[in-house]
Amino acid sequence: MHFSHLRLENWRNFLSVDIGLQKRAFLVGPNASGKSNLLDSFRFLREIADPQGGFQRAVASRKGVSQIRSLHARRYPNVVIDVVIATDAAPWNYRVEFTQDNQRRPTIARELVRHGRSIVFERPDDDDKKDPSRLTQTYLEQVNANRNFRIVNDFLAQVRYLHLVPQLVRDPDRSVGRIKDPFGGDFLEQLARTPKGTLDSRLRRIKDALRVAVPQLKELILDRDVRGVPHLKGLYEHWRPKAGWQTEDQFSDGTLRLLGLLWVLLDGNAPLLLEEPELSLHTGVVRHIPRMIARLGRKAGRQVLLSTHSPDLLSDEGIASEEVLLLEPSKEGTTVSVAKYDKEVRSLLDSGLSIADTVIPRTAPKRVLQLSLFGE
Amino acid sequence: MIPAVLEGDLDIPLAKRLLALVHLELGTIYGRSGKGWLDQNLARYNAAARHARWFGMRDLDSDAPCASELVQSLLPHRADAFCFRVPVRAAEAWLLADRERIAEFLRVAPSLVPTQPELLADPKLGMVNLARRSRNRAIQLDMVPAPRTTARVGPGYTGRIVEFTLNHWRPRVAAHASLSLARCIAALERWADD
């Protein structure tokens, strides 16, 4: 299963988005154009579907409807997220529209599930009209209500997001109590919760891959200290044969980020959202990220949506223009287009230029020259 | 909006000012990875110019005896919609050609500015040497490389040139002292009318 279409209305800095999605999607755009906000629409659905989440929490963790609704929106229209989920059989379509009532409570304005051509349900229904407070919850999050489309709920709840911050992995005290922290605060705990056999086999595969980037690394294990806190330990080749064990607080930023990336790629097969996976990595390593993702897509059918600023990442010849999403800010909010359907991009690709040479210039900020004048 | 393929960052403000002369706006900027890359890929941008108007710039340097020979060898089948211009021998020559303003900007005597910038073998060095004579310490520090470094220009060179090109340079005045610039402006005017 994977997301094959995304529609957004009034979501954060997008007035309107309507795009097809492939197994891989590369989001390219200037800073603050909304790459993270686009990924956040999938995280929002995940939080609704999460057993510990729900619609109210998903809105509250984003500080209310007024923070979510696009500043470009006129008056107070509904915020809309609408996804099509492709399966081997008929596709599923989940749509939620929401706003807030007079007491600024988030309320569902419309919720719809379609399977193929048939409508599984549509709200508000008669019960909702009799009891409007029902509209503070989606059917998606309710076990009783979602039994006809539990597969959609399970799919959305498993979406993964990773934006690993090495400093948080090294210093987990900063994020005590966080669970499934996308920034890596409980990364070591997540590893420690994995069954031993799976953990060992994954660490072995990760070590082999890591050794390409960090050839000195000989061994990689997860170990608990005297207080029971899990630590990653790496054995580095060293001129003193017994002095080479280091823990994660001594790993470099690049090692930790690559390790996190490799782990999350192996962990599960639900859609994965990645923020700038190229950070801290050598350009020679970055070039291989799209290929690793492609292999996983082929083997596990996994979808990966990632944001990037890296020409190296986009230099892979296997990246097709229908996989690249261009985010371009305008006065009417950020527009999102599939690179394949942009005339200028298309003519450059047709004449033999690479995606990187074509797309990165296209999304550079328009007034970037001003930066040369900074400091006067 | 006219997309442009350019050799380097210094060409951006130039392209912007030149296109503005003919009431066109600079669109997406491609290239900027040096002339080796540009030469290799120029034919591809030329192909893209079959569908839309494109602008391009690359320094002549010492790669050919004259600009038209260089264009001929790089682009034997130039598309009509591709306005590709070559400063003789580098973009700095076009900037030096506005003698009055560059002297004012660099705080040097106007008599120090070369009268025929197109005859300079290395206009970038010409610009740096002019900045060396500046009465303003900050300009010297920005534009002139420190002794014994490998850099050809000072750390703030690009920023200063961008500022000059955007805010002080007068292309039509400079055209009187630079034939390649005068031809560029004439070509742009014909091209913009098409």
Question: In words, what does this structure look like?
Answer:
The complex is a heterodimer of chains A (376) and B (194). Chain A is of the alpha/beta class and 376 residues long. Chain A has helices spanning 35-49, 55-60, 65-68, 126-130, 150-157, 166-170, 187-193, 196-213, 253-266, 283-286, 289-300, 343-350, 355-362, and strands spanning 2-11, 14-20, 24-28, 79-86, 92-100, 106-115, 118-123, 160-162, 217-224, 230-236, 245-247, 272-275, 304-307, 324-328, 335-338. Helix content of chain A is 30%, strand content 25%. In chain A, the strands form three sheets. Chain A has a six-stranded antiparallel beta sheet. Chain A has a six-stranded mixed beta sheet with strand order 8-12-13-3-14-15, with helices on both faces. The termini of chain A are far apart. By secondary structure, chain B is of the alpha/beta class. Helices cover 48% and strands 10% of the residues of chain B. A four-stranded parallel beta sheet of chain B has the order 2-1-3-4, sandwiched between helices. Chain B is globular and about 50 Å long. The model of chain B has no long low-confidence stretch (mean pLDDT 95). The interface between A and B is medium-sized, with 19 and 25 residues.
